[in-house]
Amino acid sequence: MIGKLKDILTVADEDRQELIDYVTSDLEFCDELAVIFEAVARPLQRNADLAHQLSQEVRDQEDPNEELGITRKEKIGNEKQPEGFREWLHHSLASLPSSCIRVENHLLILKPTPAASLRYLSMDYMDDFEIVMDKGFRSRELLCDLLYNALSENGKDIYKEIAQRSNSIGLSSCYSIHSDVAIVNAVQKLEFLFYEVYARLESAYRESHGIPMAIPTCIDWIKPLTNRSAVALICWVREVVKSIRPKERSRDDKIAEILSHVAANRVLLEIACRGEFRSDSATKTAKFIDALNDAGINEIPSVSSNSEIFDCLHCWFGRNGVALRYNDYHDLSELEIHAAIEGAEQAQSMFMLTRAVFWNPQDKVENKRDLLIFALALIISKYHDLLVRGEVTGSGRVQVFPNLKQINKGGALSPSALEMIMIIYGQIIYANEGWNLSAKKIESYVSANQLKRSYLETLIFNVFKRYHPLCLVKISSEILAKPRIIVREESGEFFASLVSL
After folding, report:
1. How far is CA 482 from the centre of its chain?
2. 23-32, 63-72, 100-109, 268-277: lowest mean pLDDT where?
3. What three-state secondary structure class fits 485?
4. How far is residue 59's CA from residue 77's CA, in Å, rounded to a whole number?
5. Contact criterion met (CB below 8 Å) for 450 and 275
6. Distance CA 451, CA 346 (A)
7. Buried b / exposed e across 385-394, counting CB within 10 Å, b at 16+?
8. Do 196 and 479 meet the contact criterion of CB atoms below 8 Å apart?
9. pTM of full prediction above 0.85
């Protein structure tokens, strides 16, 4: 089986289509290929609030103690693969190995593969040569094009919302992204919808309790609000597909299923990468805030311009800076301080597009005090040598804070760097009341958000890697049509539901 797939990827262009027609006409081959991209996970027990509500529609889940895949599939998934093949799978973000999946309290916890990154969000950051030569891009495009071309003409028409190439319209559409199979849009849009439902529930709770914007949402609320957000989406998905009764899988069905796995795996690995950023930065953010407190800096001062932000940061971190007296941080040059402010402006703009988009306009984070916190996030990355996965395949880990060459060039921060800075900003602002600076609640805030990420990962996994592709066509169409979110109150508790338009 592995030999067949390697042949497809290495055979000369003029001979490739004949080989594709041969191997994809073999339904057993399609079954085996699906396993490679499905991920043979450890048992996922049904959760009363989550997985159980999918029980009637989710395939291969009759036995709650059964692994995600049958015994034959497990044997195939564990087949020893050539090193070059595994590398190709990882660089293309097409495969989600079972070694990256852990189940805890009925929820998935994913860790990224060594080769995973946010490279598909990074077109602006990379130059044309890097894009053309990157083997991750080339491998994924080749795989998706090969599978699309393997569909019959009728299959291409039925599964166009899954298999055609398309640009992103989800969270990642805020970046200049690389095109991918169309169903990636629906996967990302489900992620977007999950956060939107959560934001609506959170807003209702805050309003009912009269909580001002200066006070963050109670950490104890995050779990129930997250659970109800996921349940609302699961119930809606179930309603969307209740009338679809797929027949036995055809060759086109199985090819579309493979493309769905490939799409979901990419988004899941990107979410896992962002989760890694949170865990990598939390203790360092806390240590930095403690250092500021030791120096007598306990709140964000009022600033109204970039020049005032520069003066503040220079006073704290310049030569003989106030914040340097009780720690081993080195002083920052004026060039580095300017770079921190410029990077902060990029991160604040991206935050407005990807996070604050769910809030009311008057609640959006766009003042200079917030910009100062984003700049502090850059400085944390500088002092603690925070690294992120490089977007170029094989580039290893790279520093978040721009190096001298990048500063002089004045280029954009990479998507990974921007995500790290936005995450650190969140750790500071949402773990404190008002403009206070304290590290006491950072760990609790990060743990609560890791739980939110697990709910999202489980939701995406159970929808896009479990439903029949005909169901996914309907789900994708309804997601992209943007269902209406309804928040209702029952005995002082708030719940959400969705209605297709």
Report:
1. 20
2. 63-72
3. strand
4. 18
5. yes
6. 28
7. ebbbbbbbbe
8. no
9. no
